TrEMBL record:
InterPro entries registered for this protein in UniProt: ACCD_DCysDesulf (IPR027278), TrpB-like_PALP_sf (IPR036052)
Keyword tags: Pyridoxal phosphate
Keyword set includes Mitochondrion: no
GO molecular function: D-cysteine desulfhydrase activity
Domain of life, source organism: Bacteria
Transmembrane segments: none
Name of the protein: 1-aminocyclopropane-1-carboxylate deaminase
Record-stated family: Belongs to the ACC deaminase/D-cysteine desulfhydrase family.
Organism listed in the record: Campylobacter estrildidarum
Gene3D superfamilies reported in the protein's UniProt record: 3.40.50.1100
Length: 286
């Protein structure tokens, strides 16, 4: 069973709480919560997992650790890997290589369809970003854990977590007694809604509010103010946050007036920063 602490921090005079899912262990962050269902399953000797997506994704890194530990073969379909990265593996990609993932590059435009075509009957197919219905179990547990901790702390929270596919935010909002706020880090608000509805038909958004960023950020692109915020948080709070999702989310969090104490869910992904920091260094940010 997963369990993380809640820490109180102060940044530029704003006091809030952090759910330290980044400290869950080797498998951490929201990908650990999403995999909770798979922890409890029994696998056959020649079990294979087949997934697809970004070669530097946190999902790949997390799946590679899980599969190595459970003696499962992981096959991961991705787009052509840039030569520079192949010659200088780093971050999540380097970990996947170390963990013996069979990586299959393809020019096929439909990665999912291609990955599915590799599946035999006994194989377990995992959606990009581990965005599937089995993820719900981990969020039921997380909602309960937060409820118990809120009683110990004698606090009623508002909760914020940034979204990619929205799987984490949607399931947490479904099970939490506290109001959940999120933002879209890939595409706009309607794109996020669509993603959630694709996963969970008839999803009831009444406990999930999608907040807007006042600037449009392109996923994975370097921005000066994002790097600045990342550095300041690290210095002032001694916590490293993820560059792709957290910086978009925290920007919004810090600009908003919150009525209740805010609980921010740290969703891990720190190993993924290595490759982003290289891009920042390449652009001359120090
Ligand atoms: C995968 C990931 C997200 C996005 O999670 P979704 O459930 O797809 O919305 C956010 N933050 C971090 C650090 C992640 O690794």
């Amino acid at each position: 069973m997963l369990q993380s602490t809640i820490d109180k921090i102060c940044f530029k005079g704003f006091e809030f709480y952090i759910k330290r899912d980044d400290l869950l262990g080797e498998i951490n962050g929201n990908k650990a919560r999403k995999l909770a269902f798979y922890f409890s399953q029994v696998y056959s000797k020649n079990q294979r997992f087949i997934s697809y997506g970004g070669i530097q994704s946190n999902a790949l890194a997390t799946l590679s650790i899980f599969c190595l530990k459970r003696n499962i073969k992981l096959i991961f379909v991705c787009r052509k890997i840039p030569n520079f990265l192949k010659e200088n593996p780093c971050g999540n990609y380097a970990l996947a290589l170390k963990n013996k993932v069979e990586i299959i590059e393809t020019n096929n435009i439909n990665l999912k369809k291609y990955a599915l075509s590799l599946c035999n009957k006994e194989d377990i197919f995992i959606e990009q970003g581990i965005a599937n219905l089995n993820a719900e179990l981990g969020y039921k547990e997380l909602a309960n854990e937060i409820k118990e901790q809120s009683i110990d702390l004698n606090l009623e929270f508002d909760i914020f977590l940034p979204s990619g596919t929205g799987t984490s935010a949607a399931f947490l909002a479904k099970h939490s007694k506290f109001k959940i706020f999120t933002c879209s880090c890939i595409g706009d608000e309607s794109y996020l809604k669509k993603q959630i509805l694709e996963l969970i038909q008839d999803y009831d958004f009444s406990n999930l509010e999608i907040l807007k960023s006042n600037k449009k950020y392109h996923f994975g692109k370097p921005y000066r103010e994002i790097y600045q915020l990342y550095k300041e948080l690290k210095q002032e709070c001694n916590i490293e946050f993820d560059l792709l999702y957290d910086m978009i989310g925290l920007n919004i969090v810090l600009q908003r007036k919150w009525e209740k104490p805010l609980l921010y869910i740290h969703q891990g992904g720190i190993l993924g920063n290595v490759s982003m920091l290289q891009r920042y260094a390449f652009k001359g940010f120090k």
